Amino acid sequence: ISLTSDYEYELGNTGYQAFLRGEYTWQSEKNTSVDASPSTAIGAYGVLNLRAGFISPDETYKLTFAVKNATDVDYPSFVFGSTFSALDGVTRSQYLADPRTYSVTLAVKF
Q: Which of 6, 40, 49, 67 is buried deepest, with most CB atoms within 10 A?
């Protein structure tokens, strides 16, 4: 499930536009293996991304401040099992999703 909200407004009589954007994505429990092994199950999680910024009157410049994974949810994006005899059976490996990340972007049209 994904929800997105955008809001734009003019900053006084300057001609500059300000904007806010929120994106929320909910992922229910899933399994990343073909055989649906319990060791490769990933629990449900939600991720919130936020953006705010300014647009120049002639839309030549756009400055955006963003936060991905704003609540810093720790979740695996992929889990897989492998046989490793030194650990006496099956071990599980996983790729973790990115933690909270900040960015600033300046876009210029010419």
A: 40
Side chain identity at 2, as an amino acid letter?
S
- Tens place of pLDDT for every residue, the chain, 110 residues? 999 999 999 999 999 999 999 999 999 998 887 777 777 788 899 999 999 999 999 999 999 999 999 999 998 888 776 666 555 556 677 888 999 999 999 999 98
- Percentages (nearest 5) of helix, strand, coil residues in the chain: 5, 60, 35
How many Å apart are CA 22 and CA 80, to the nearest integer?
A: 32
C-alpha neighbours within 13 Å on the C-beta side of residue 14: 11
Contacts of 1 (CB under 8 A, 6+ apart): 25, 26
Please state the pTM of the whole predicted model: 0.82
